[in-house]
Amino acid sequence: METFADIRARAVERKGGADVVDHHMPTMKSPEQLAAIPDDRWLAGMTRVVFNSGFSWKVIEAKWQGFEAAFLGFDPGRVCFMDDDALDALTRNPDIVRHRGKITSTRENAAYVVSLIKEHGSAGRFFADWPVTDQVGLMADMKKRGNRLGGNSGQYFLRQMGKDSFVLGSDVVKALIKWGAVEKNPTSKRDLAATQAAFNTWAEESGLPYAHISRTLAMSVGDED
Length: 225
What we know:
The protein has 225 residues and is mostly helical. It has two domains: 79 residues, no CATH class; 131 residues, Hypothetical protein, domain 2 (Endonuclease III, domain 1). The protein is built from 15 helices and no strands. The longest helix is centred in the middle third of the chain and has 21 residues. 39% of the residues are buried.
């Protein structure tokens, strides 16, 4: 497997300088900052990423105030007790995207957030405390206990909330294969474990956040590779 120093050198070469690469690095929140995020914002983040999937993010953004009102400010305790009649009414609400499955998903994810509050004191505490060295474990938890939070949706959710994390977008997957971490798109448990191990190795080598490693990987490949 290639060293991260060589991968970064390739990214710097492709992008025209270290300053260009550094400029594109995402900003992450500290564990303390994550823990301080209110529970309703975690549910809002889950809802946003679920509705963004398959829709233009601009459409969701333009209707977001409608979502806030429709889902009661994303209060997890209130949303998880919305009955089927209330959800049916939302399918006729022009202020949101009227996708029944995704509307139901918000109620299911509210129940997930409520369970995290009961277990850990808050959803923020749960996500803040989960070690970045086991992101694949967190992804598995979100997929199993949440709704529509598997795959890239869960990864984008973590990134948008500010948790240090990698995102297995097409360029990152391409880089993982090119630099010898995996042989194919890491969807199996085995390949996800190999992906996590690669990120752990590169993080130990570089001392960089996983989000920065992820972004650097994406910048290290291109159409010519």
